[in-house]
Amino acid sequence: MNLEPWQLVLAIVGAVLVGVSKTGIAGLGMLFVVMFANVIPAKQSSGFVLPLLIFGDVVAVWSYRAHAKWAHVFRLMPWTAAGVVLGYFAMGRIDDRQARVLIGVIILVMVTVQLWRRWRAKPGELAEHGAWFAPTIGVLAGFTTLIANAAGPLMAIYLLAMRLPKMEYVGTGAVFFLLLNCFKVPFMVNLGLITTDSFGFNLMLAPAVFLGAMMGRKLLPKINQKLFENLALGLSAVAGIRLLF
Question: Tens digits of per-residue pLDDT, 162-209?
Fold first, then answer.
């Protein structure tokens, strides 16, 4: 890939953020999505970023696998897989702008739902979630991750709604995204969004991802639980607004 110096710097910073988001603050995910969309065309960037995400997922699972709550993974994965298939068929029928607006609206609606549930719940009480909640989040997450690697905010909303402690939040998300991102690979290859050239550049950026992952591991234990939740939800909202404009 022939990149200008500023694009190369942006790609390296984006790769570091991939790692930090996987082992530290998950809400940073949309920042690197935007960065890579400024380096290469938006649709191509969704495939280009995928191997970098998997590199980060491997470190995150290795670091936090003991904290994963598998029941949430099993509850979401079938619905998420269905969403990936829907996204695969939609990819050739919508343009970049339509995809961004659609995903932004979905994220902002789900953030609003979560804030409303927080407001309604009494102190110390878990907000109830109907049978629709996991299937809805799962399908939307699968669809948005295939279109623009934008499932992070939706997963954040789900895990926050489940009131998972910080370490369980990260461990469950790590396992979920490793499985999901590996599942997406054949679809991205078939769409021509992962190529030998793009993967070669991914390998060049791999050290930056691993550096970011190590930084995230150092950062996570120092973050207060309430601050962690607010950061995850706040960055999700910012991501949704950014996609709209």
Answer: 888 888 988 999 999 999 999 999 999 998 889 999 999 999 999 999
* Closest listed residue to residue 23, CA positions, set 49, 62, 71: 62
Read off the pTM.
0.81
Closest CA to 237 of 161, 157, 148, 129: 157
How far, in Å, are 37, 94, 120, 164 from residue 211 at the CA level?
Answer: 22, 35, 41, 27
Number of residues that this document lists for the chain: 245
CA 38 – CA 15 distance, rounded (Å):
13
DSSP string, 9-69: HHHHHHHHHHHHHHHS-GGGHHHHHHHHHTTS-HHHHHHHHHHHHHHHHHHHHHHHGGG--
DSSP code for 202: H
Torsion of CA 151, 19, 184, 96, to 10 degrees: 60
CA dihedral of residues 132, 138, 142, 148 (deg, nearest 10)? 90
